[in-house]
C-alpha cells in the first residue's frame, strides 16, 4: 500500500519541503527498521533523539523525514522533509491516515488505571464474544485477534504498530476491541487520533513514579483518556479519590458516565458478596436493578473488575442479562490470581499473580488470606530500573502475610541484592517473619518447604511473564512452571 505525502499528512499542521506527491510505502520511527520508501519520524525519546538518526534512515532507504526542526543531511537532494511541532503527535495522526483510520470500523474500549486493566479487558472480550461479537484484545499479556494470539512488546504499542494492529483487526472483521491504555502511552501520544467508543478507569495507586515523578502527574496522564481529546462514553470506578475526581470532571463536561464501586453511590455496586476458593457469589445493584450470579474468579479486587466490565458492557449496548450470562463463565486470566495445579501439592494452594505495586500486593495477599484455612506465605521482589521509592513500601506491605520470602524479580541492569536491600529496609517490624533468597526458583522452593497442608502461597510480581530480565539477558522463567515443578519435587516422591 502506498500514499502520497499530501495524503499522509492531511489534517496535520506541517510544512512539506519538497515533492508532496512523493509516495510513502511505510512508516518507521527506528532507523534500524527503515525500508525503502518509508517515512521516518524523528522522535525525541527518553534517552536518544531521533533527529540524530535522520541520515542513517536515509541511508536505509527513507524517502521522507518528519522532524520538529530542520536537520543537517549530507545526502538529501531528493528527500522530502516535513516539519511538525510535535513528531509523536504527527506520527500517530499520520499512522491513522496511512491505515485508513481502522479503529472507526469497530467499537474500541480503552481501559486505564494502575491495576485491573488486563483482567477487565479479558472480561470485556468474553462479554462481547458471548453477545456474538468478533473480538480483539490488546494489552500486557499480548494481542488476540478473533481468538488468535500474537506477542506484544508493550502494554500499549507505539502508534505506528498500534494502527497496524487496528488494521489487522478491521480486516479480521472485529466488532469490539478491548485495549489496555497505559499512562506512558497517553503521555507519549501513542493513541492520539484514535476514536474510542468507551473509556474506563479502574484505580490509581503507586507505580511508574520513576517516569511521572509525582502522583499528580501520573493521574493527569491517565486523565487524558477522559479529556475532550478522546470523546467517548465513560465507566469510572469511584472507590478512590482519583476516580471521584475523574467522575467530577466528566460530569462537568456532560459526558455519559456509569460509575462503579463498593460505594453505594456508584450506579453499579455490590449488595452482597461471598468469597470462595474457586468462585465468588455476588448480587449487584445495577442502576436500581438487582442481579445475583456466581462467577469463577476470586478475590475482592476481581469484584471491582467485574463491576467495571459490567459497566463497559452496558455502554456497548449489551443487555444486562447477556452480561450476567457471560460473567458466569468468565475466563481465568493468565497470571492473575491463577491457582497452579499439580498432581501432588501436599494440600498447599499456590497462586501466581502479577501484583507488582504496593496496592496490588496488598489486595492479592488479602484475597489469598480470605481463601486460606491456614497461613499465607508470599514470595515477591521488585523490578530494577523502575520506581525505586515503592521498594520499602512493598516490603512493609508484604508483612500482611504470615511469612514473606524476598527474592529477585526482573533486576534488569541493577544489582538484585541492592534491590532486595531496599525492600528489606521497609520490613523493620517483621523480624523473624521473613527471609531473603535472591534466586527466584530457590525462593519458591523455600516457600513450599515452609508451608503445611492447608497453607496458601502467593508468588507475586511476574504473573503471566515467562522470562526474567537480568543484566542485558532475557532468561526463560515462568512462575507457573516453576511452582508446578517445585510442588512435584516437594510432594511427588512421598
TrEMBL record:
Molecular function in Gene Ontology:
ATP binding; magnesium ion binding; UDP-N-acetylmuramoylalanyl-D-glutamate-2,6-diaminopimelate ligase activity
Q: Which residues bind UDP-N-acetyl-alpha-D-muramoyl-L-alanyl-D-glutamate?
A: 31, 155-156, 182, 190
Any single Pfam family the record assigns to this protein: Mur_ligase_C
Q: Which residues form the Mur ligase central domain?
A: 111-312
Motif stretch (Meso-diaminopimelate recognition motif): 409-412
Into which family does the record put it?
A: Belongs to the MurCDEF family. MurE subfamily.
Q: Which UniProt keywords apply?
A: ATP-binding, Cell cycle, Cell division, Cell shape, Cell wall biogenesis/degradation, Cytoplasm, Ligase, Magnesium, Nucleotide-binding, Peptidoglycan synthesis
- Name the major location: cytoplasm
Which positions are annotated as binding ATP?
113-119
Q: Which cofactor does it need?
A: Mg(2+)
Which EC numbers does the record give? 6.3.2.13
- What is the official name of this protein in its record? UDP-N-acetylmuramoyl-L-alanyl-D-glutamate--2,6-diaminopimelate ligase
Cellular component annotations (GO), alphabetically ordered: cytoplasm
Compartments reported by the entry: Cytoplasm
Start and end residues of each Mur ligase N-terminal catalytic domain = 24-99
The chain positions of domain Mur ligase C-terminal read: 335-463
PTM note = Carboxylation is probably crucial for Mg(2+) binding and, consequently, for the gamma-phosphate positioning of ATP.
Kindly list the biological process annotations in GO that this record carries: cell division; cell wall organization; peptidoglycan biosynthetic process; regulation of cell shape
